[in-house]
Amino acid sequence: MAELLEAKLYPAFRLILAGRWWVIGLYAALFCASVPYALRVKQDNSVDRLVIQNDPDYLAARDFSRIFGGAEYVVLFAEADDLFAPEVVAAFDALDRKLQSLPRVTSGSVFSLYHRAHPDADLKAQLGEFKSFATGTAIFRKQGLVGDGFLGLPLILDIRSSEERQQTLKAIDDAVSGKVKNPAPFRAVRKVGEPYVNEYLNRKTAEGGMRQFPVFGLFVVLLVVGLYRSFRTLVAFMITLAVNVTLAAGWIGFTGGIFTMVSAFVPMTILVTCLATLVYIHSRFVERPPGRDVDAHQVFALANKFVACTTSIFATAVGFAALAVSNIRPIHEMGIWVAIGLLFTWFIVFTLFPALQKVLRTPTQVERKTAAQWFMHVVGWMPHFSFRWRWVTVPASVALCLLGAVALFGLPDLVAPMRMLTNPADYLNRNSDLYRDTRRVEQLMPGLSMVDVWLRGKVGSLNQAEVIRGLDAFQSALEAEPLVGSAVGPTTMLRMVRYLSGQGDRIPEDPGELESLTNDLETLLAEEPLLARFVDAKNMSQTHITLVTRITDYPAYQELGRRVGDLWKAAVAQHPALNEFGTSAPPLVGLGRLQAKVTYNLVPTLTESFVLTVIIIFSAFLVVFRNGAARLMAMIPSLFAILVMFAIMRVTGMALNVATILVASTILGTSENDQIHFFYHFLEGSKGGTTETGLRHTMLIAGRSIFFATLINATGFLAFALTDLPALREFAILAAVGFTLSMIADFTALPGALWMVFRDQPGAGRSPQHAVRKGRNNRPPKNPGTSHTSA
Amino acid sequence: MLNGQVDAAGHFILRQVDQAIKGARSVVRGDCDATILDDEQFARAKEIEGGKNLRMIYDSPALPQLPVVVFGTALSTEERAVLVKVLLGMCGSSEGGAICKKMHIGRFTPLNTALFNDLQKRYGE
User: Fold this and answer.
1) What are the strands, taking DSSP E only, across A593-750?
2) Cβ contact B25–A538 (<8 Å)
3) Domains of chain A by start residue, with CATH
4) Model confidence pLDDT, tens digit, residues A228-277
5) How far is the alpha carbon of A579 from chain B, nearest alpha carbon, in Å?
6) Measured between alpha carbons, how far apart are the two ends of chain A, in Å?
């Protein structure tokens, strides 16, 4: 079948070479059109970009922010030995005023509350009074505004875009940078909050891209010049790669895509796959036998590599497209973008690259000898070595695979499954100030995770005095719940308003007083921006209670949801007015919970997309090679690499996260290319021959390319090891290790298994008939010249 | 008296609310049958959930807008004239506009004396 197809491809490739200038012109036009769209692609690592847009929890979080405002929060903490020493109070007050004057920033500190209650207050003169105010209620302590040895300064940021976030955080940083560097009279000034984490990830991902792609470019230059020793070949490679990645990025920009942390792998995956395919095609091209016409040989080389390259590119593309089943948005989008980018790769490597080869007159080995001639020794040595050590390499591979499976899934009662990163701070560099501040504040505060209990009632529910009383009781019950650090709701604000006006910090027992306070709520909404964030002012029907917790994992959030449901039922039973909000458990919403859900879904996502990828790639093997059992062995190197990589993760203490979770699919999708080329040429070489002739032919034609393709893939991904982000760095190292392991298995365990399956041995000369019985595709080659190699 | 014919107090149990929109919400909730709103409040009430179903059952004759009142004789006639002049232009200036906005005042308009006279006739001195 392959030979027939090859023969049919000859005219098509002749046509492409004849119309080479048209092809180059077409791609030049497409390149120019893609550049503006490619430049349009932006970076955003917000939590809400982690889930696909029809996820019910995402939709709930979005609806919630439409009603109550989509503000983001950062908190500044100042640690001091004596919080109410005159110089400490003066310095904090100055800091607070400075921050309040910034656009889009509202302060919720105890200082700003005091000034609101006493507009003409002079804190220096009223230190004692201020101290009594700050320590006279538990409300401030529960909210982390005043604690043991620290003062909290919560800032509400009214930001609607990454640009606004960037500007606002920069303004805050500028305002506090002096105190961060020289904190006196404080012990330390710390900044924490999700906007900082997002901004850090955006900045580091962008900076990483600036470093990784030049490193990759340098590597391409070294590889191409070192391997093919030709500047013209280098130009052909560079143009092809540039066009491929620009078209792919242009497509992402055209469809309105936005890069997240893992999206940096999209151009890199496309680049390494494209480069590896070019190495396969060009290596076949340079193996021109003396005396054969260059044009005729180019057409032969393209047709000969067409099936293997097409199969491997499409298997990789569909393998990545399988990631689209994920409800984790960056993974979902990465799968689709890589698949589309690889579709471009397929067109480009069989149209633009041949045209460039022709126009630039890239030399073959007749004109210029290629590098790595030492590989010929490997070709001679490998079949015997793999046969001799087959009972070591194959069982050892299986044992290591089992070890890897245990490392990932665990063993009941003996080994726990691999841990997953659940805390957003784990994505930060351990040496960064932000990481250290976040860890310190986690110790000081009752938690840094926030989740909201969303209460949806009837129009005017919040105008009912008894509803207010019931909500206050419900909030108190939530605060007493061990899973909850503190709870802030509309009644907290009402209590605070009463406290500010000297009426104590409790909701009044007297019905008349409560009625009056409820009536005031509507007026207060216009005056107190913080209160307005807790109430749906138009309908007075919806509110929420914000819970601050230490929870970072989804099962604990689910448990919290159940406890909230129980407490709500109890509250409704005690305060029938709360029936306005229904009796069923109120939903929990919030980006922290959404992030925990994403993390919780990582392993099922990995498994689901990985199983799909395996099925697709195995199906591709079946379609192309028409034999299941023997071709299943072709997956040995990939499975070996993936499972051993999990064992390495376990030993080195690496955890699963949104980046490392992609390693299995990436290794499988990338390394199966090598196995497709391996098998394609193995079948080609063993026609009418033995396992030994098949292996020799494979090593001659594809061995060196597999070696260099692995080198490309490993080094390409290793470029990400330069990033400051631990998750990306670990992914890069693991991918490089995985590719190398796969190549080692290509040259040891895979041929060892082939010897075992075909019950063959070197020099036996007995395989053809035996192979037919085993189902091998063993038809005689119709055109023996096509499998010729001069190496 | 509605239209001088119907005594509202005789037909309804009257309750005072300090927020007009709260009255409108009570009607939407079914807690009461009707509430008194001006045109602007009625337009706002239409925006609340279920507010589209609110309908007008009685339209009173025109009432003056919220007046600025000077009690006693603290201001002379000249001073009053100056105050009126300043207030009329206040919301149009940048400094005064900010204050108007804060006080939720759109603009100050000259007194509609005819309307007040009519009101005085209707409801007595």
Assistant:
1) none
2) no
3) 1-40+230-368 (1.20.1640.10), 78-195 (no CATH), 375-408+603-777 (1.20.1640.10), 435-598 (no CATH)
4) 888 899 999 999 999 999 999 999 999 888 877 667 678 888 888 898 89
5) 14
6) 26
